Amino acid sequence: YRLFPDRKKKPQSFLVRSLFTFHNKCQLMLRLTLETNPYARLLLEALKQSGCTVFNDRHFSCENCDGCVSGGFDAATSQIVLCQNNIRQQSHMNRVVTHELIHAFDHCRAHVDWFKNVKHLACSEIRAANLSGDCTLMNEIARFKFGLKGHHQTCVRDRAIRSILAVRKVSKEAAEKAVDEVFDACFNDLEPFGRIPHSKADAKRAYRDFQNRDRYNANL
């Protein structure tokens, strides 16, 4: 909660929020992501089929956050926080929403102990980094990080460790140990995508496969 100070405040009036440019822009970008981004659309459908239907007004909140984070999943309220002061581009919003929806999906389908079991957190952070597009080639080039063999796995591991350190008061050694202990199992858990979506084209194919899988199952 220290990273999301608005979580402890009373919500502002609709008029104040409507006049606040960052809030308006955040809401518009969120709507576009939910309506058009294949990563987000697949996750929303998967959550619905798992019994956790997501509603825009209830499960997303655009707020001011600490400068080091772009978003977060509040397990206590099952709400995704989007940092309106740190998300300025649509592509960034797409990645943040996808990343946090993966946490929401994990929260829905499993008994995740977010606060007491660092391995649970590490697993979800590995999955989020692996499946959200955080580690695509273009994003890594934009960070001036280059590599060949095993670079995707290295990126996923590094970003999972960074995410744990950003939200939990644990040592770097403890974060690294937790990630390493669950890495293989969680890296290979590709639900609900069924593949690692390295691009929007991959995500669109995964979305089509997900829909067809459901149609196939319905006919069994």
From TrEMBL:
Q: What is its EC number?
A: 3.4.24.-
- An annotated GO BP: mitochondrial proton-transporting ATP synthase complex assembly
This entry's Gene Ontology molecular function terms read:
metal ion binding; metalloendopeptidase activity
A single GO cellular-component term from the record reads: mitochondrion
Q: Which UniProt keywords apply?
A: Hydrolase, Metal-binding, Metalloprotease, Protease
Which InterPro entries does the record cross-reference, listed alphabetically? Answer: Peptidase_M76_ATP23
Please identify the protein, giving its name as recorded: Mitochondrial inner membrane protease ATP23
The coding gene here is Atp23
